[in-house]
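Reopening this one. Same input as before:
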Amino acid sequence: MKDSDFSQSIQQFPPAMAYVPWQNFANLYELEKALKIGTIFPELDKPFVGRRCVK
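Same output, byte for byte:
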């Protein structure tokens, strides 16, 4: 598919709508741990272990 074909075909789709809940600034990781893990929120700490996430 040429880039011009993609640009024309994408115009037929409406913009996406997302539901993004507010993130509460509570139970935060310490700065050093957050930098190592990649998030300050423990709720978002879902390490990739191959096929599924772990709690």
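So the earlier flakiness isn't reproducible anymore. For the record, The longest helix spans residues 3-10.
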